[in-house]
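Structure in, sequence out. Go:
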């Protein structure tokens, strides 16, 4: 191969490395500057946003922020939709419509659509692409297009400490107790008691906690090593934000 061709190839490879480094460095800066926090809310004016809470950039659709309250140390991943009301610029009254407790994690691409009350308890973790809604289409009139019929709305309440697996759907009227596990892809409606594991579409209880017998049926795997006492909440949140805490999908 001629020397000038070798020199051209080397120059092209060098330029590619430089451009790649510049693009990745620039994108990291954009993500850092575009994140929403209590100190840097951008153009969003939430009813409340707690200390340490962060909405990663780029955000999904967000509207009705005055009726959205976010607790402290929440992690909202990229492309997460948070809406209060059927559409922007509505007056929804004096009370919050969408409430997240402290330490809630919403995985990438999740949607929380609150046309009426939706509450998510503290320390609830949602995997990627979870869909939580208080509104469903109605189809009472067989002659009218479904999209033109007025939807049904029912409040949704998710208790503290739950784990909502990847791709799960929480339907209007659902109430989940404390420390509920929702398996990946489950479609949940109705009431789920404390300390239950649900799976399927529609979801049903596949495991529950008995104070005397423990988990029934018994767990198939040994208990994990407890979190060391010297690990801080900030370190746990950093782990969740990195995505490493979003791999499990529910047992």
């Amino acid at each position: 191969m001629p020397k000038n061709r070798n020199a051209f190839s080397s120059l092209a490879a060098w330029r590619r490395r430089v451009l790649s480094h510049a693009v990745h460095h620039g994108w990291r800066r954009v993500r850092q500057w575009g994140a929403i926090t209590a100190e840097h809310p951008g153009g969003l004016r939430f009813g409340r946003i707690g200390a340490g809470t962060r909405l990663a950039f780029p955000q999904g659709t967000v509207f009705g922020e005055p009726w959205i309250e976010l607790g402290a140390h929440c992690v909202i991943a990229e492309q997460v939709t948070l809406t209060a009301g059927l559409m922007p610029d509505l007056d929804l009254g004096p009370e919050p419509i969408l409430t997240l407790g402290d330490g809630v994690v919403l995985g990438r691409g999740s949607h929380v659509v609150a046309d009426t009350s939706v509450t998510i308890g503290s320390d609830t973790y949602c995997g990627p692409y979870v869909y939580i809604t208080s509104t469903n289409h109605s189809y009472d009139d067989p002659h009218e297009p479904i999209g033109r019929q007025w939807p049904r709305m029912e409040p949704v309440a998710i208790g503290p400490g739950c784990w909502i697996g990847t791709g799960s759907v929480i339907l209007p009227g659902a109430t989940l107790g404390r420390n509920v596990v929702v398996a990946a892809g489950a479609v949940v409606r109705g009431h789920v008691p404390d300390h239950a594991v649900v799976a399927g579409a529609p979801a049903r209880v596949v495991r529950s906690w008995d104070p005397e017998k423990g988990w029934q049926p018994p767990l198939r795997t040994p208990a994990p090593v407890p979190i060391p006492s010297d690990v801080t909440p900030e370190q746990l949140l950093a782990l969740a934000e990195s995505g490493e805490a979003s791999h499990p999908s529910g047992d």
